[in-house]
Amino acid sequence: MNQEIRHSWKCPECHSKQPKTDNTNSPLRQPLQSTQPGRSNVSVLDEASCEASKVTIRARQQSQAVPVDDRYVTEDSLRRILSEELSCMIEVKIKKLLKKRTDHNFYKANYEEIASDLECIYWVERFSSCSNVNEMVSKFYDELRLIIDRSVPKRRPSKSKYPKWFSRTLIKLLSEKNKLRDRYRNMVIHMTNLNMTSYGGQVL
């Protein structure tokens, strides 16, 4: 390496920090643009290739977006509207069904009337038209439901934390047990506090 090259030499790191120039003198050949009016986006080379292959290349037209008018109902908006309407209708229907829901109050049933109605039924005659046991059972339950509807009053179901098979007597006994347990627990706490106060914080 002679003296001139040595003074002009730069390391790659320093050379990379120098500002770059444009690519006007790039060896890549740019296609010449056509001078014909209305064909500005088609190059001369493309025209020559088109003439050779007899393929017509037309200038692309930019597709214009169709403006969306708020007055028109789209598929998404229609789906949302139908979903809201159906939800409201179902909610109203469920509330009406819950209000009309009733069950039999067997605590106030007239069991004497039920027994007399069952005694008045001539079961042999009722079952004479049945061909098998399943039809007899269905016939029996139909008659029993009619008697229950006549002799048992209905009521709206009450919201209770106890199961349905809990009687009123059992619920009353459970409440009494809870009261006694709370009273005993409060008494134990009170006696413990008295002992701690009497013996200077030492519990016997």
From TrEMBL:
Domain of life where this protein originates: Eukaryota
Biased composition (Basic and acidic residues): 1-20
Compositionally skewed regions (Polar residues) per UniProt: 21-43
Region Disordered: start-end pairs: 1-43
This protein's name: (apollo) hypothetical protein
Annotated organism of origin: Parnassius apollo (Apollo butterfly)
